[in-house]
């Protein structure tokens, strides 16, 4: 009985310990007490709940989820739904967390908060936005600022990834997080200058907020600012300021931030700046994109962009198999995406397999008609690179949705003109003009007003026909233009010019519509024009020339000074008594008296003697025969020692006596133009 009574008493003491440790935040000690309680009563539901909470607080999410799954009968979904869903969320089992939340019988505020986070991770931004709006509307506590920050993050994600124009939420940007999210939304809309100002404000707010805490160091502030600076660098990159962006990116990497997602994005952006240059740096940076946990930190589109750049880097570094492997994997994940097939085609072109690349692109265009236009543009580019301009034109004309576009018409006309196929070029103009006529008729219910693009095409067609001597064909276009604007004198003049060769009578009739010379006279102050700076200069110059001509004609005035011819410089060794060599202008080998270089001279002396010896006789270098010569290095076998204060240079380091002369001779030979024997 005493032992049985001791159990409840001990449990009560342990619960007091658990409560005290929980209030102090010492969850490790609390966990020990909870385990002792469970030894007394292993089916204590409250103790099991406390154990799960302690494990979560200590970051042991896997172990906490294990406890929940082991005691499913005691820890039902009603009891511990939030803790289970939170563990699954932190273990990146997002789909499982969503199912756990949705299966809970009661949707508490905690579950709603977690539901919003889960939807954001799943990139279901519309549902996430609705969830946070509901939370902000129906809750009032100290976490309102965090909810508004999350709401602004959802809007920024919609603007960036879904290209949705964000609505004004009316959020007061009092914190640097709200400013940062607002800047991200502006980047998604392409408002880069406004976004940069927001980021500068966010940086200022962040410094103010963190500097108030005395425990925060400058390094801590810089680490917190890293994500803001990273976004600033991204804006610089988009604006074309790649050097500034690269410098800022590298500064962030040197700080070694703990956010692997931030490092991966910065490394990827540096790789895109490097392109096919500085590939060794890119190969170093690509390792940062492979860090553990990156896939849980970035969105699907960010991860996809990183994989595309890996494939391109493999192509630039001539890793053909790796490039094919990565692009094939990307194509299997996103069959409708253009980039994987374009990378594969580019790799084939690098391997000089252009026909195979075109075939690959054609297959993709047939399978995905929605993306056929962009693929066909690439095919046309490949054909042009191969010199098949006519085939490229055929491919471009097969893109029906682009046939009438001014850019396409201009490209086709230029290419056909290059191939001197004027008929096909005119046909391109005709088809585009007919398309606009039909489109205008369908839009205006039979009325026939011409759009500016339509009129511009007609004018270009007329000018092209006139340029290539097709005046008869140009007349109808010019008449159409004049009909639309009878006051257009330029068009009327072109029309008269065209009719003058075809129907002179018609040209005379039309010329009556030209304005009179009186109405066309320009009110110009001739004196002011002549006295202007440019006109004065031209007139003076012209007058000077006229005066010279008059002098030449009349034979009066001073005779123009003749330029003295400078005497040519004579060679230093010139002798006036000796007749110059008549063949001196010919190269030495082409002269009649050239007998070739004498080979074998000094052949017997090559290779003889010690290293550093010259062709000079040994008797001249013998110190024993010259009384005045200074002491030299000791002879082999002699016991004489060289003094430490001696100025004699050892033979191996001494210049050979004949070296300067030899060098001079070589230089002289080079000056003569003879080829050396190197």
TrEMBL record:
Coiled-coil stretches noted in the UniProt entry, renumbered to this chain: 94-149
* Start and end residues of each Signal recognition particle SRP72 subunit RNA-binding domain: 540-596
Matching entries from Pfam families are given as:
SRP72, SRP_TPR_like, TPR_8
Query: A GO term (biological process) for this protein?
Result: SRP-dependent cotranslational protein targeting to membrane
**What residue spans carry the Basic and acidic residues bias annotation?**
572-593
Q: Where in or outside the cell is it found?
A: Cytoplasm; Endoplasmic reticulum
Record's PROSITE patterns? TPR (PS50005)
Task: List, alphabetically, the InterPro entries matched.
Answer: Signal_recog_part_SRP72_RNA-bd, SRP72, SRP72_TPR-like, TPR-like_helical_dom_sf, TPR_rpt
Its name, as the record gives it, is Signal recognition particle subunit SRP72
* Gene designation: Srp72
């Amino acid at each position: 009985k005493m032992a049985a009574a001791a159990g409840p008493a001990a449990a009560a003491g342990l619960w007091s310990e658990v409560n005290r440790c929980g209030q102090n935040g010492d969850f490790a000690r609390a966990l020990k007490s909870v385990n002792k309680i469970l030894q007394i009563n292993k089916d204590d539901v409250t103790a099991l709940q406390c154990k799960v909470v302690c494990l979560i607080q200590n970051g042991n999410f896997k172990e906490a989820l294990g406890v929940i799954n082991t005691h499913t009968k005691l820890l039902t979904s009603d009891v511990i739904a939030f803790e289970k869903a939170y563990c699954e969320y932190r273990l990146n089992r997002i789909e499982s967390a969503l199912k756990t939340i949705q299966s809970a019988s009661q949707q508490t505020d905690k579950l709603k908060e977690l539901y919003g986070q889960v939807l954001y991770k799943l990139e279901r931004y519309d549902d996430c936005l609705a969830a946070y709006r509901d939370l902000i509307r129906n809750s009032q506590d100290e976490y309102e600022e965090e909810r508004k920050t999350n709401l602004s993050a959802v809007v920024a994600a919609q603007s960036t990834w879904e290209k949705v124009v964000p609505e004004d939420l009316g959020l007061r940007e009092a914190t640097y997080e709200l400013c940062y999210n607002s800047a991200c939304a502006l980047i998604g809309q392409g408002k880069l200058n406004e976004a940069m100002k927001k980021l500068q404000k966010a940086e200022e707010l962040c410094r103010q907020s963190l500097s108030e805490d005395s425990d925060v160091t400058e390094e801590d502030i810089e680490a917190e600012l890293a994500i803001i600076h990273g976004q600033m660098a991204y804006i610089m990159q988009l604006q074309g300021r790649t050097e500034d962006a690269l410098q800022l990116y590298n500064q962030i990497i040197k700080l070694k931030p703990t956010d692997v997602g931030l490092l991966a994005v910065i490394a990827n952006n540096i790789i895109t700046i490097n392109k096919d240059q500085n590939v060794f740096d890119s190969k170093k940076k690509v390792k940062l994109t492979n860090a553990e946990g990156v896939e849980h930190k970035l969105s699907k589109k960010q991860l996809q962009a990183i994989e595309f750049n890996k494939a391109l880097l493999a192509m630039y570094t001539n890793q053909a198999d790796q490039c094919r492997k990565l692009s094939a994997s990307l194509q299997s994940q996103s069959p409708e995406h253009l980039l994987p097939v374009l990378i594969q085609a580019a790799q084939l072109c690098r391997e000089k397999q252009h026909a195979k690349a075109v075939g690959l692109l054609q297959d993709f265009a047939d399978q995905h008609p929605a993306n056929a236009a962009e693929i066909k543009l690439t095919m046309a580019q490949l054909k042009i690179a191969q010199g098949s301009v006519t085939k490229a034109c055929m491919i471009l004309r097969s893109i029906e949705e682009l046939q009438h576009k001014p850019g396409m018409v201009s490209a086709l006309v230029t290419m056909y003109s290059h191939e001197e196929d004027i008929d096909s070029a005119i046909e391109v103009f005709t088809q585009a003009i007919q398309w606009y006529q039909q489109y205008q008729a369908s839009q205006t219910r039979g009325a026939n007003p011409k759009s500016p693009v339509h009129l511009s095409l007609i004018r270009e067609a007329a000018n092209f026909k006139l340029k290539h001597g097709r005046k008869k064909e140009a007349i109808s276009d010019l008449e159409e233009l004049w009909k639309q604007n009878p006051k257009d004198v330029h068009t009327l003049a072109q029309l008269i010019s065209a009719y003058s060769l075809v129907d002179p009578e018609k040209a005379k009739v039309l010329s009556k519509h030209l304005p009179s010379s009186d109405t066309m006279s320009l009110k110009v102050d001739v004196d002011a024009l002549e006295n202007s700076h440019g006109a004065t200069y031209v007139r003076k110059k012209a007058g000077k020339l006229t005066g010279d001509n008059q002098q030449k004609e009349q034979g009066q005035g001073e005779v123009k000074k003749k330029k003295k011819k400078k005497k040519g410089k004579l060679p230093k060794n010139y002798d006036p008594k000796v007749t110059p060599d008549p063949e001196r202008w010919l190269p030495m080998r082409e002269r009649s008296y050239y007998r070739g270089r004498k080979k074998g001279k000094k052949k017997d002396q090559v290779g003889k003697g010690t290293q550093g010896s010259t062709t000079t006789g040994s008797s001249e270098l013998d110190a024993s025969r010259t009384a005045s010569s200074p002491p030299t290095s000791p002879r082999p076998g002699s016991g004489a020692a060289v003094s430490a204060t001696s100025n004699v240079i050892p033979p191996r380091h001494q210049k050979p006596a004949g070296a300067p002369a030899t060098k001079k001779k070589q230089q002289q030979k080079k000056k003569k133009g003879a080829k050396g024997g190197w």
